[in-house]
Amino acid sequence: MTPLDYAVLFVTLLGIAAYGAWRTRDRRDLNSYLKGAGQTHWLAIGLSVMATQASAVTFLSTPGQGYESGIGFVQNYFGAPFALILICIFFLPLFRRLNVHTAYEFLGRRFDAKTRLLGAALFLFQRGIGAGITIYAPAIVLSTVMGWSLDLTIVCSGLVVIVYTVVGGSDAVSLTQRYQIGVIFAGMITAFFILLAKLPAGLTLGDALTVAGGFHKLEAVDFSIDFNKRYTFWSGILGGMFLALSYFGTDQSQVQRYLHGSSLRESRLGLMFNAVCKIPMQFFILLLGALVFVFYQFERPPVFFNQTVWNREVQHAADSKLPAIEQEFNAAHAEKQRLIQHWLDARHAGDATAEAAARAQALSAYDRSEAVRGRAKDALVAANPALDRKDSDYVFITFILHYLPHGLIGLLVAAFFAATMSSKAGELNALSSTTIVDLYRHVIRRDATDRHYVVASRCFTVFWGLVAIAFALFARMSENLIEAGNIVGSVFYGVPLALFLIAFFLRRIGGTAAFWAAVVTQALVITCYFTLSIGYLWYNFLGCAACVLLSLILQAVIGGPKPVATATA
Amino acid sequence: MKPADKPDPEAETTGLPGLRTWRAVYLVVAGVFVTWVGLLWLLMKRYS
Prior knowledge:
The structure holds 2 protein chains of 2 kinds. By secondary structure, chain A is mainly alpha-helical. Chain A has helices spanning about 5-25, 30-35, 40-55, 55-70, 80-100, 105-110, 115-145, 150-200, 205-215, 235-250, 250-260, 265-300, 305-315, 320-350, 350-385, 395-405, 410-445, 450-475, 480-505, 510-530, 540-560.
C-alpha cells in the first residue's frame, strides 16, 4: 500500500467514525441511547440491518468461498426472505406494541424471569464469541498480507468502534452504518468492474461464465436430499430459514436495528428490503469469487495464496521442497491454460465434439495442478505443523493487492474495515443493551436514575468491546472464516428461536417447561455438534424442533394448562 | 388492553404504489425469491 492508499483508508474510516460520534453526542436518556430517537426511515433501517449482518468476513471470505467451492453457498440464504416475512407478521408487531428494549424482555413478560435470563445469557454467550470472530477474521487476513502487527490491527479497529458506540449509542451505530455500507458497496462494485476489465482480451463474459461453469463453480442450486451436504436447496430453505428466523427475530443485534423505526411500517419495509436484496447481494459476492477463479486460469496464481507464509517457509528452510513444487505448479498451470484456450477456441468455432474433448482435457489438467497445490500445502504443514492449510480467505485480498490501482486498494481495504466496524458496533450496542436491560436493571440495580443507566450502558459497551478484542487476540480458527461465524450461530440459535415460537404459538406452555426444555436441548445440540457429522445448518431446525417437542412433553408431565400471560393477549 | 381495542398490524397502510396490503408485499417478496432461484437454476443449466 502506498501513502495514497493509507490516506484513503484513514480518512474514510476515521471520518465516518468521527462524524457519527459528533452527530449523536447528545444522547443522554436511556431510551434514546438504546433505541435511538425513533425517527429512522425504512431505508436506513434496511441498510443498518444489512450492515450488521454483513461483516468484513462476508466481503473478504465469501469471494474465497466462490473461488474454491463455487456459488452454492448462496443457498444458505434461501430461507431468509421467508424468515423475514414471518418476523414482520408475528415478531415485529408484538415487540413494538410492548415497547421492549430487548427481545428477551418479551420472554420475561410471557414466561418468567429465569427464561428471560436464559434467553439473554445464550445471546450474550454466542454474540460475545461472534463479536470476537467479527474483529479477528479480517484482522488475521489483512495483517498477514499487509505485514501489519495482528495484535495492533485488532486493538486499533476495536478501539475506534468502542469510542463512537460509547458516545452515541444506537443512533451512532445506525448513522455510521449507512456510510460504511456505502463505502463497502462502492469498493465491491469497483473491484467487480476492474476484474472484468482485467480478463484476457477477447474473453467475453459468456466465455468467463463458461469456464467457471466448466469447473463446477456455478452450481448454485442443489435439489438433492443429502443431510451430509452442507449446502442444498432444502438445507437452505429449512435450516437457513430457522437460522435467519433466529438471527433476525431473536438476536438483539438485529432486533435493536429494526426497533429504531419511526413506525411499524418503516421497520417492516426495512426488513423487506433485506428480504429482497440478501440473495442477489450474496450471489454477487460469490460470483466475484468465481470470476476471480476464471481470472487466475489465465493469470498464474500463487501456489499458496497466503504468500507471506509461503515466502517465509521458502526462505527459512534451505533444503525445502517448496521451490521445486512451485516450479511444477507453474508448469501445470501453463499446460492447463493452453488446454482452456483450446476449449474456448473449439467453443468459438462451434465444434461441440472438440469442445467437449478439450473441456475434459482442461479439467484433467486442473485436477493435476490442484494435486500439486495439495502437495505444496502438505509440504508447508510438514515444515510447520502449526500452519493453516486453508488459503481461500487470502484469494480476494491477493487479487486486490496485485491488480487494483493505488487509491482503490485503499478504498477496498477501507471497505473491509468499514464492514468490521459496522458489524461490531451493532453487536456491541446489542450486548450492552441486553446486559443493562435484562441483567443489570432487572436483577442488580432496579431503581437507579436514567443517567445512571446510560453511564452503566456505556461502561458495558466498553466491557464487551474489550471482551471481543481479548477473544480476537487469543483466537485460532481452522474453518473458513464465514463458516466459523455461521457454525457458532447454528449451534446456539435453535433454542432461543424455540423459546420465541413457544411464546407466540403454544400458549399452554409455561415458563418452567420452556426453561428446562431449553436447557436440556442446548446441551444436546452441543453434544451432537461434537459427535455427529451432519451439515451445521440443520442444527437450527433440529435444536428448535427438539426444544418445542420437549417443552410440550414437560408441560404434560408438570400438568395443567398455564394461564396465558398478558404480554401476548 | 382488550383485543378489540388493538389496531390490526396487517391493516396498516404500506404506502407503496400498487401494493396496498402487507399480504401483497409478502407475495411480491416471495415472488422475487422464486424469480431469483429460477434465474440461478437457469445460470447453472446454461453454463454447467
